[in-house]
Amino acid sequence: MNLTEEPDHVAWPETHYVFVERTGPFMKTAPEAWQTAHTLLPALSERNNVTGYMSLYKMGPDVYRAGFALAAPPVGLPRGLQYELFPGGEYSRFTLTGPYSDLPQATGRVFEILSKNNMALRSDFCIENYVNDPRTTPPEKAITEILIPTD
């Protein structure tokens, strides 16, 4: 697994975000949410400039959002998608290069590193930012930023 183990600190910007939300175990809800989100992407893209792919998640209770960053507030939001202006904030960023199937192991490792270093977490959504287009990027070249809200 190709994961950076020393985080860098970044300020995530305010983001127009449309998403499909599911609650429950991530191994079940994440694939379901992404499957639904991808079916809605063509209709969303007809009237909106999609600038990125990202998921937001919280644990306890487990909330998973699969969605898309937009250049502006959505126009003609397709049924099944929700919108919010995500406020952003300060995050510790780890980067995974490789297939999305490595994300559960990588995220587990990130939380081990945070615990070992006694890093305080802010009560906010974690972010998975998919740097390159998941539809066209070969799995071994996929880059995912794992951003953890830290104080």
- Supply the CATH class: Alpha Beta
Could you say what the CATH architecture is?
Alpha-Beta Barrel
Number of domains: 1
The SS-based structural class is alpha+beta
Question: In percent, how helical is the residue content?
Answer: 10-25%
CATH topology title: Multidrug-efflux Transporter 1 Regulator Bmrr, Chain A
The arrangement of helices and strands along the chain is EEEHEEEEHEE
Query: Helix segment count?
Result: 2
Low-confidence stretches: none
CATH superfamily: Regulatory factor, effector binding domain
Number of separate strands: 9
* Biggest sheet details: 9 strands, antiparallel
Distance between the termini: 27 Å
Overall geometry comes to globular
Note the beta-strand portion: 35-45%
Query: What is the CA-based Rg, rounded?
Result: 15 Å
Task: Name the average pLDDT.
Answer: 95
What are the defining features of this structure?
9 strands; Multidrug-efflux Transporter 1 Regulator Bmrr, Chain A; 151 residues; alpha+beta; nine-stranded antiparallel β-sheet
Word description of this protein:
With 151 residues, this protein is an alpha+beta fold. It has two helices and nine strands. A hairpin with a 4-residue loop joins strand 4 (50-58) and strand 5 (63-70). The chain starts with a strand and ends with a strand.
